[in-house]
Amino acid sequence: MRAVVQRCKEGKVTVEGNVVGQIGPGLVVLLGVTHEDTEQDARYLAEKIAGLRIFEDAEGKMNLSVRDVGGEVLSVSQFTLYGDVRKGKRPNFMAAARPETAEPLYETFNRLLREQGLNVETGVFGAMMDVQLTNWGPVTLIIDSH
Fold it and tell me: Which residues does residue 10 pair with via DSSP β-bridges, in sequence order?
């Protein structure tokens, strides 16, 4: 699994003009699933992301997690994170898991984040989505479970 994690002041996902997920301060997580991913990958990423110390403490140091600051998570599935552009100009998505594999793992990831005590809003799996956020910092990290 691959996650792009962005610390944000706010974020929202819109599908066909309707807001389907919206958060205040917290994290926007774009999540991609590949063929060999399992529930262990989802667990690793959920625990890692929930505990990432990327929010500032009273001294201005990145020492606090999204849980510590009472932040929220906006989780958006994104198969394009496994796009391969090494050959040619058009991405190859062969490394992205098929929806019947990816969707249950995406849902497991979201459930595991909620079990970490986080409020988790989501996009709509497989939908064309508009994702908006105010990246805070900016702070953006890429995390792979492998």
Answer: 134
